[in-house]
Amino acid sequence: MTLTERYSSVKNTIPPGVELVVVSKKHTVEEIKQLYDAGHRHFGENKVMELMDKKDLLPTDIQWHLIGHLQTNKVKYIAPFVSLIQSLDSAKLAAEIDKQAKKCNRIIDCLLEVYIASEETKFGFDFTEAETFLTNELSKFPNIRITGFMGMATNTSNIEQVKLEFRSLTDFYKKYEKALALKHLSMGMTSDYKIAIEEGSNMVRIGSAIFA
Ligand SMILES: *Cc1c(COP(=O)(O)O)cnc(C)c1O
Fold first, then answer.
1. What range does the domain containing 15 cover?
2. What atom in ligand 1 is closest to the CA of residue 23?
3. Does the predicted model carry a pTM greater than 0.90?
4. Pocket test for ligand 1, best of 113, 189, 204, 210 (most atoms within 8 A of CB)
5. How would residue 119 be classed by pLDDT, with cut points 50, 70 and 90?
6. Of all atoms in ligand 1, which is nearest to the CA of residue 208?
7. Is the pLDDT assigned to residue 86 strictly greater than 70?
8. pLDDT above 70 (res 122)
9. Summary mean pLDDT of the chain
10. How far is residue 212's CA from residue 209's CA, in Å, rounded to a whole number?
11. Which of 190, 205, 208 to mutate to test the pocket of ligand 1 (most atoms within 8 A of CB)?
């Protein structure tokens, strides 16, 4: 299969109402352009410098998502154009995004990254920290709009565990959905996006299934 064929076959497995973010990290501008020409607009990158190099060579109506851990000193580069920062993982980072967004006269949409996996290495807020952030700190950052949550399940073949982890974030999302007018629940990548959608995800981030 060609790249666009793989893209179409993945796209066909995603129900209406679920947004596909194509994770293009480590892939070339030529490959991204092929998917752009096939009609795709939402792309995710996890490294700021790689994103900066690519974006200048590609059409300006691409919606860029930042999906990886973001260092505070790099926020200034993406603040003028980023569509959605999916990896807001600390109050310190929120303060910096707010500051840079203000300079650009923007309100930047962000997802709170919530830690749902049993692995030690992933970034994010736990549920208690997320709750504290939403109730006590978010109002200090008028140039940030929290539009939802992002979570990654444990990398395990235990499907029941993955389901429970996704479900825990869906429950948390439902708790705040109305009050905060949330619209994005970003859960699921190549290995687990079908489970994530079953458990309530409305945004999936898929790389390897498409680029192979
Ligand atoms: C790389 C990455 C993905 C995509 O992973 P695939 O397994 O290639 O689909 C999704 N989310 C994040 C945060 C990533 O870093």
1. 3-211
2. 4
3. yes
4. 189
5. confident
6. 8
7. yes
8. no
9. 97
10. 5
11. 205
Residue nearest (by alpha carbon) to ligand 1 atom 11: 205
Which residues have C-beta atoms less than 6 Å from ligand 1? 23, 25, 46, 67-68, 189-191, 205-209
Residue 121, pLDDT score: 64
Residue 29 is given by DSSP the state H
Which residues, including other chains, have CB under 8 Å from residue 112's CB and lie 6 or more apart? 88, 124, 125, 130, 133, 134, 146, 148, 149, 150
Q: Does the pLDDT at position 64 exceed 80?
A: yes
- Tell me, what CATH number does 147's domain have? 3.20.20.10
The band of 12, judged by pLDDT with boundaries at 50, 70 and 90, is very high
Interval between CA 46 and ligand 1 midpoint (Å): 9
Count structural domains, the chain: 1
State the pLDDT at residue 78: 98
**Whole-angstrom distance, CA of residue 17 vs CA of residue 85:** 20
Cα 191 to averaged position of ligand 1 atoms, centre (Å): 9
Distance between first and last Cα of the chain? 10
Q: Residue 202 corresponds to which tokens in the numbers above? A: 């409305």
